Amino acid sequence: MKVVIFSTCIVDLFFPNVGKAMVEVLERFGCDTEMPVKQICCGQPTFNSGYVKETQPVFRNQIDALLSIDADYIVGPAGSCVNMLREFQVQLKDDPEYAEKAKQVAAKTWEFSQFLYRVLGVLDAGAELDATATYHRSCHMTRLLGERTSPFVLLDHVKDLKMVPLPHIENCCGFGGLFSVKEPEISKQMVDEKVDDVISTGASVLISADPACLMNIAGRFNRRGEKIKIMHIAEVLNHNVDPSRVKYVPEAERDELYAGGYNQGFTQSDVKKEVGA
Amino acid sequence: MTIKTSNEPFLTRLKESEQDTFMQKAVAKAQDAQWDKRTAARNELGHWEQWRDLGEQIRQHVIRYLPDYLEEFADNIEKHGGHVFFAKTDKEASDFIKHLAEEKQVHHVVKSKSMVTTEIDLDKELLKIPGLSLLETDLAEFILQEDDWDEPTHIVFPTLHKNRDQIRTIFQKLGYTGDNDPQHLARFARTYLRASFLKADMGITGCNFGVADSGLINLVTNEGNADLVMAIPKTQVVVMGMERLVPSLKEAEVLDNMLARSAVGQKLTSYCSFSTRQVSGESDGPEDFYVVIVDNGRSNALGTPFEPVLQCIRCGACLNVCPVYRHIGGHGYGSIYPGPIGAVLSPVLRGYEQFGDLPFASSLCGACTETCPVRIPLHELLIKHRQVMMNKLHTDKSFNNVIMKGIGVATSTPAMFRMALTADHVAMAPLTKHAPITVENEYPEGIIRKAPSMAKGWTDVRDLPEMPKHSENFRSWFKQHHKEQEAKQDD
Ligand code: SF4
């Protein structure tokens, strides 16, 4: 199965380890990975700032790049950016040339953890991590992409990993893209509460499926001189892997899981208690 | 008070909010408690998502046929002997009511909670009439009035920013001598207010929903004060936003149900009444009945991408889930409509000059859109506002605008991005401070503690990872890795 890696600009610029871990896990499960070099960014920095028109070329470039390699799937390590790729079809629905291409992109794009669980049917990735950890749920992955399950299921199966629920898991960490730069006064208070909540769990590792949220929370931890270890979920699932531990979801449940990956956001309201959280 | 509650710049208000730790704790506590109550009340109803579909359809339908429903509603009010006045502006609305009070030689006005009367600054206008007394009878509004007309900070819980000790101090000015027990405080207010109801000759209420096919006014409260305001005085004035209609009682039932669960986490509020002018042969209810329907900027939204904002039923749920409201409170927004709904609605009503900061005061986390019972896409409307403002800025050469356009070009031009990736960031080197690193696995290359320009907002608050060298970034690794894979396959 051929998978195009949607690297995301944040991983390209800052976090090679996240990209490496993702590629290694995917290859372990039989994916041939390819990375189109012309890809850049999902366009959120400008789009969410109101530069909607200026972002159209960003969308188009990204679509051309991702479709330049004929692959079965497109997989990325950030829930928020993946959601934006799926939303291209909404933004370009009146574009005679790109409407159809945007639909093709949306139909085969998945966030890393949901791809593993819902498409490949992986239940236990065979990883081990002897630690107490908590999970930060990104707003866009949860509410817009509608993915509330996959990371929790996968983490629950990591050997020796003890997951502690994060209080106020429903609250934003204060990243919000350029919000963090434009409104530092508000963003600071939000991330401070998040840091306090993480500390209150006693966890020594903070995990998430969105490197941008992690960059924000980690940045505040470090500024405050507080200790924590940051891990992207791909790094956790790539840690001390023993292939004999790998387990799959029963065949009979796969179709439903797959369909659940197209839960396009806002279907459940106020769901506070997550699976495994 | 008009829509605007403060003349201070946005940043000043933010600073003040940040220092108001009491307010922040109170809001956080209320949000957390409401989260559980609201979720339980919605779950108990079951099929919440389908209810939301229905709520959205009802409200969209009404907005689409608003002129027709307004006409039907007004006809039915008049059929019962009531009067309808359409006010284009806040001034027209408050002038009309003021003249009415003068004409009827009103001495004592009692009011029940109504955001739209705050919006048109009605209290202050009426109090200009010599000899006229006016009393807010909703407990929270009463507290604000007695605290020298303090600003409300929430559309459902206007005194969220006050604690029981502050309230006790306010009541002491009225002769209260008891302790800070909320029950004792409420009992004192109740006795104080009772006397006013009996002597009032004009009652003013808001309106949760106007029922078009019957001309009934639907009000939901938990204190029952609105019912007294309607039942006792000879003259009643109902003030309502022009969008607050439902076709019939059937739709009112659906929306009341959703409103109570969303606003306060109850099945239904303690009082839910439908009323109109006094029916002949009955002893209570107003003899003179006026309905003032207020536009005051609402029609700006009609036919625009902002039209969905008129679906709002003012439940306040979006404030109760908003992480920004959680920290900056109502005062931070500087509008009587704070939170996500306020950030969308205030610029629609009053423009960007006054409220252009608000659409940016959001991380676009979508909690509001997720909770809204009538499915207003609040966070998308915030982006729309940003878009409108940025289009206006089109020719603007301000620093940020130029940078943003630059980012737009850089993120759509592969060669430029690759150049950025291949440059080893020597230029960044002097920015790196040898500050201690306490966070593991995030800063293999070190941290940046003080960055210039756009990134300053970031490093004002938190550390930034230093970028890996070109040879060590993800793309270089992938290229190398691919070569190795291929070599393996060739073997
Ligand atoms: S926008 Fe929606 S959630 Fe917010 S007050 Fe209005 S109806 Fe309630």
TrEMBL record, chain A:
Source species, domain of life: Bacteria
Cysteine-rich domain boundaries: 3-86, 134-217
Transmembrane segments: none
InterPro entries per UniProt: Cys_rich_dom (IPR004017)
Protein name: (Fe-S)-binding protein
Organism of this sequence: Lacticaseibacillus hegangensis
Taxonomy of the source species: Bacteria, Bacillati, Bacillota, Bacilli, Lactobacillales
Automatic annotation (TrEMBL), chain B:
InterPro entries: 4Fe4S_Fe-S-bd, 4Fe4S_Fe_S_CS, FTHF_cligase-like_sf, LUD_dom, LutB/LldF, LutB_C, NagB/RpiA_transferase-like
Keyword field: 4Fe-4S, Iron, Iron-sulfur, Metal-binding
Source organism, top-level taxon: Bacteria
Residue span(s) of domain 4Fe-4S ferredoxin-type: 302-333
4Fe-4S as UniProt keyword: yes
PANTHER family per the UniProt record, alphabetical: LACTATE UTILIZATION PROTEIN B (PTHR47153)
NCBIfam families: LutB/LldF family L-lactate oxidation iron-sulfur protein
Official protein name in the record: LutB/LldF family L-lactate oxidation iron-sulfur protein
Organism the protein comes from: Lacticaseibacillus hegangensis
Taxonomic path: Bacteria, Bacillati, Bacillota, Bacilli, Lactobacillales
